[in-house]
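Sorry, I am new here, but would you mind making up a protein's amino acid sequence and the tokens describing how it folds?
***
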Amino acid sequence: MSRNVAPSDGSESDIVAGTTTSDSDSTWHLVESRIGGNEPRDKWHLAYIIFVLAGTGFLFPYNSFITGVDYFQIVYPTEKYEFIATAVYFYTTLFAVFLNNLLLRIVGLSARIRTGYVVFAIALATVLVVNSRIDTRGSSLSFGLTLFAIALVSLAGGLQQASFYGFAGMLPKRYVQAIMAGESVAGLIVSIDRVVTKAAISDCRASSLAFFGLSLAFNFICALGYEVVRRSPFVKYHLAMAKSTSGNRVMGLGRYAKLDDIDESVEMESIDRKQKHQSARKSPLKDRVLGALRARLLVSRRIWLYMLSIGLAYFLTLLIFPGLLTEIRDDDGRFSNGWLPVILIALFNFFDFIGNLIGSWHYNWRPGHLVSASVLRFILLPLFLFCVLPCNMPFFGSSTSFVAMGLVSVFGLTNGYFGCMSMVLAPAQVEPNRRELAGNLMTLIMLIGLTAGASFAFLLNHVTGSEPGNLCFSNSTQVSVSNCTHV
């Protein structure tokens, strides 16, 4: 069987795209027969575990900066650290995801991921050096270096996140869920790490340095895990299948695609064939760019409801987490020494992890229902505001801390579950050789939602009255500083 091989902008490397309809059908029969008899097994679920580790790895450094908010609020009492750090992270990450889409055909998957781990190590080492060697209290230099480290982390994380979702999109659906679970595990492990170091070491600076040192060590473990999984026969098999198929059937939800989807598949194959022939013309770059944009548009038409669902879900997430959570005050002194924000962030990460685990029980949600669920979650926003407002006496009064814990638990659970469902189901709506592209597009929309949420959190900050000089801000700051002097 002869094939015309053409480059596709939707996968990690060259894939077969220029097949005829009959050739594609034959390819499907070949693939299905091979999967039925000779597909390697994921022995001991090793690849799944390492994909969980991978998801943990590219969000671990970010969670380290956010979960250590109690320390940074003390070191930089006049700065709105949690808001500035979140904005810097997600704006840079959004840029990195755009960059990743451009680098799909230029820089290999392994190069992008390995570069991410190296940059992660540099960023965390920078924080360790700055906070151990420089008098950080209120220092604009150390604050600038900390933000620089966050920018490095976000650049590396954005490249890795988009790359890993595209990578997992070419494997069975559960491996996308593995990455989502790993992201939740990152927050959970970092929260446990912070609670342990804060409880075991009374000196605030020493406990924070131990915290970031453990984060650096975990980054090294994640890098080793990637080197193992990329050599797995199971992973190599599915990557080969994704690169060698371009059929007219969607391998998702156990049924054939609609006729419109098949027409779009043929149209995308036509784009790939045209790109091959146009590559020898006078202006191949322009033709390839237009072809790539059109391919992305066609994939987006298949998964736009999933994209809307994930965008809305994560917009709300960053609108509330971590900024609004860190403004919830413990006026009754039940959780002294800055423990309340640490506990709230830990609860969010724990239930986000549980939500992702529930997402591993594959329930095929209709995309419209996922969008509705993402919209319904906005009911939580006014309830969280009542935990902060009115400024001098929140609506829930002396029960505010416990109400906030209950709300955060629901917030984290729904975030983990519905975010996972959108990311898992979307790549299955397109052909195997387009799943990396679908994964990248979903990651892009997810980051747009996160970045927009972080931006609107600044506006919400003015509504809740936590800017420097306001009564709410000064109260929370004084409590933290008075209970931790070893900085």
